[in-house]
Design goal:
heterotrimer; A mainly alpha (190); B alpha+beta (405); C alpha+beta (135); A: 190 residues; mainly alpha; C: 135 residues; alpha+beta; seven-stranded antiparallel sheet; 22% strand
């Protein structure tokens, strides 16, 4: 009897341990999946910024013929682009990208004064691509921040916070927007 | 967002269990009635479950394809409508979806849209040509965000599961009622040979079964519609949150509501999938239940003055409808989300003719027409894909134009 | 849409944002009720125009409406009692069909719609001359 009870007790303890291990593994996997999603969302921002860099030479080339008197605008865009492409760290890059966004929205305001350009089919399709790229940058940021919010909540809340602590899941930072003007999606109005 | 998915899952399970028991009970009653013994009842239940399982397997393996083709949706590439593709990609980023949904255009002048596909990995979004003709960029974004919310809330899986269950219930009770109607005379003669007591019990049994066969589909429909209405509100809330711009969706809904065209390509089963009830006029009355009144949805969205998050939608919903909460409380824990400013200008005023041409040309592009302008006089010619011949001569000036291959 | 005579695909012509269907083989023309509506800016006006024609008895071969495939009625155009010009009208008012040359004849006689819009559009599309010739 005594041996039997001991055996049952041991089995119960063993069962609990197995369940606990399964539980921890489940949470761990969920956390890894979330962290990957955060990383993926971050890389999406990069992809969209690159797209914008690729788009600009084409845009400038198409518009230049129509806008002889706007050399300053073009120079500002080209300069902001090369500075953004040559940025060495995240702080530098986000500052330069912010400046590029501003230069582009200024350019789009100026375009309003050139009805011929606005009627150009090639330019119209470029314009849609640019609007969309600006939107995609903004939405990729938004998506990243949503994902970070969820991930951070998860690693702070019980019981997943214990597992997160055991395996060093670190809190992630939000993608903060530099200046107030950038807080809304850039107003590229067409 | 994620909290909503969890709550949705639980609600779906409850609803499906309720509808499932109605289905099984229906099978049992009918089996009992026809066989006259409890064993036959179990057998009827088995048949009902079999019908459901069969339909379930079909709809899970190819439900979205059936749906898309019954709506006559055509898969399109980005060059047919770049703006639509861009907007879908933008919302994919905002929703952190693993894969951009496939894009379809429906050849229908009535403005409407729906999403299909079981999981976010294999989702599709279909919009009508009429919708693309009417909406500006922000409005289109609102509609796509609404559909994207259906996808991330897993509403499509729910609609498929519940829709199939509803379909099975309707099918079984229809078969029963019809067979009752045709065989009622014959069976009465048969029963009359038995003792009158047994005959009475039999009649009571028949009455109960008929009542049940009539009521079961109605009950199942009520359940189904109640949840699909709630999901419509939640998809609106999700759409506002994804775009950070409730006005876009509100103004799109307003334009959709203002249209008087009934969708040719929608039917009773697919109706709950659309962003707005596809039927107009008397036909709409039967299906009133699938969608909340569109005016109310617009009012709620317009009333969201302080932010675009779920919590803001919830506040606005309670203010406008004076009803109990729609968004599950656990989804409201996030902080408020700021509204952004609208970017797109309103669509330039178009004459009826211009609009008709734009929508018509889009529909023709989808069905692979070739567009030509006569080299001599500039007459616009649209050549169907099944046109015989490699060239057309202009009926006005006689100049020959060769067709692009 | 297929030509009711040749049974082959017709092409679509667009002029002043109005479309007509044209058969390149037999030069027949389909004027759709929806396009008529756009041309006259008004559904009621298009409908009453379609109904205004009187059905005539004729031995001409019956054509089938390219939309609903129902046999079309022969209707009389113009006030010339002796030599009425006959065109085909879908019994469900889906539109009008003009055989080759019929349109030219109808336009030459000048009586079609009160505002002359159809006459102007179709005239411009197929015959540059009538614009200069006396009305």
């Amino acid at each position: 009897m005594a041996i039997g009870a001991g055996l049952i007790g041991m089995l119960v303890v063993l069962g609990i341990l197995v369940l606990l291990a399964l539980f921890v593994v489940g949470i761990y996997n969920a956390l890894v999946r979330l962290r990957n999603q955060v990383d993926n969302a971050w890389s999406q921002i990069d992809v969209q910024l690159k797209r914008r860099h690729d788009l600009i030479p084409n845009l400038v080339e198409t518009a230049r013929g129509y806008m002889q008197h706007e050399r300053g605008t073009f120079e500002a865009i080209t300069e902001a682009r090369s500075r953004a492409m040559g940025a060495h760290n995240v702080a530098e890059a986000s500052k330069a990208e912010g400046a590029l966004t501003e230069a582009l929205s200024k350019f789009m305001l100026v375009v309003e004064n050139y009805p011929d350009l606005k009627a150009n089919q090639n330019f119209l399709s470029l314009q849609e691509t640019l609007t969309s790229t600006e939107n995609k940058i903004a939405f990729a940021r938004q998506g990243y921040n949503d994902q970070v919010l969820f991930y951070n909540n998860k690693i702070q809340m019980f019981p997943s916070n214990i597992v997160a602590g055991m395996f060093n899941f670190a809190k992630r930072d939000y993608f903060e927007i530099q200046n107030e003007a950038e807080r809304s999606v850039p107003k590229v109005s067409f | 967002m994620w909290e909503l998915i969890r709550v949705n899952k639980r609600n779906s399970v409850i609803l499906l269990a309720a509808m499932g028991s109605v289905l099984l009970l229906l099978g049992f009653t009918l089996g009992y009635l026809f066989g006259g013994a409890p064993q036959a009842g179990w057998f009827g239940m088995l048949i009902a479950a079999g019908i459901w399982l069969f339909m379930m397997l079909i709809s899970l393996s190819s439900g979205d394809q059936i749906l898309l083709s019954s709506a006559k949706a055509v898969p399109v590439t980005a060059d047919v409508h770049p703006m639509l593709f861009n907007v879908v990609e933008e919302m994919t980023l905002a929703a952190n979806l693993p894969k951009t949904p496939k894009v379809y255009i429906i050849n229908d002048p009535a403005p409407n849209a729906f999403a299909a596909g079981r999981s976010p990995d294999s989702a599709s979004i279909a919009v009508t040509a009429g919708l693309l003709g009417k909406l500006n960029r922000d409005e289109l974004q609102g509609v796509v965000a609404h559909e994207m919310s259906h996808i991330i809330h897993r509403d499509i899986l729910f609609v498929t599961l519940a829709g199939v269950m509803l379909g099975s219930i309707v099918l079984i009770s229809e078969i029963f009622l019809r067979s009752m109607f045709y065989s009622s005379l014959g069976s009465r003669r048969r029963y009359s040979s038995r003792s009158s007591n047994e005959g009475l019990a039999q009649i009571v049994m028949i009455v109960v079964a008929v009542l049940f066969a009539i009521l079961a589909p109605i009950f199942a429909q009520l359940l189904y519609f109640a949840l699909s209405r709630k999901r419509e509100y939640l998809a609106d809330a999700g759409g506002a949150r994804l775009t950070r711009y409730p006005e876009g969706l509100a103004s799109a809904l307003e334009k959709i509501a203002g249209s008087t065209v009934t969708m040719e390509t929608a039917n009773k089963v697919t109706a709950p999938m659309y962003i707005a009830n596809p039927f107009r006029g008397p036909k709409a009355m039967h299906l009133y239940g699938t969608h909340p009144p569109i005016e109310e949805r617009i009012r709620i969205l317009r009333n969201m003055s302080h932010g675009a998050g779920y919590i803001n939608y919830e506040k606005s919903y309670e203010e406008v409808t004076k009803r109990s909460p729609v968004v599950p409380a656990s989804a409201l824990k996030e902080e408020e989300v700021a509204i952004r400013q609208g970017a797109a200008p309103s669509k330039p005023e178009q004459t009826t003719r211009q609009q008709a041409r734009q929508v018509g040309d889009l529909m023709r592009t989808v069905s692979a027409f070739a567009f030509l302008a006569c080299g001599g006089c500039g007459l616009k010619m649209k050549i169907p894909p099944n046109y015989k011949g490699a060239a057309v001569s202009c009926p006005r000036c006689g100049q020959k134009s060769t067709l692009p291959q | 849409m297929d030509c009711p005579i040749c049974k082959t695909a017709m092409i679509v012509l667009e002029l002043e944002e109005v479309e007509i269907d044209y058969c390149t083989q037999c030069a027949g023309i389909w004027l759709d009720a929806g396009e008529l509506e756009l041309l006259l800016d008004n559904a009621d006006r298009a409908d009453s125009l379609l109904r205004s024609f009187t059905v005539a008895k004729a031995d001409e071969k019956k054509r089938k409406c390219p939309i609903c495939l129902k046999k079309m009625e022969k209707v009389r155009v113009g006030s010339d009692e002796d030599r009425p010009e006959l065109i085909d009208r879908c019994p469900k008012n889906h539109g009008l069909w003009f055989d080759r040359g019929e349109l030219q004849e109808v336009l030459r006689r000048g009586h079609f719609d009160d505002a002359g819009r159809i006459r102007r559009l179709l005239g411009d599309l197929f015959f540059s001359e009538p614009k200069n010739s006396p009305q």
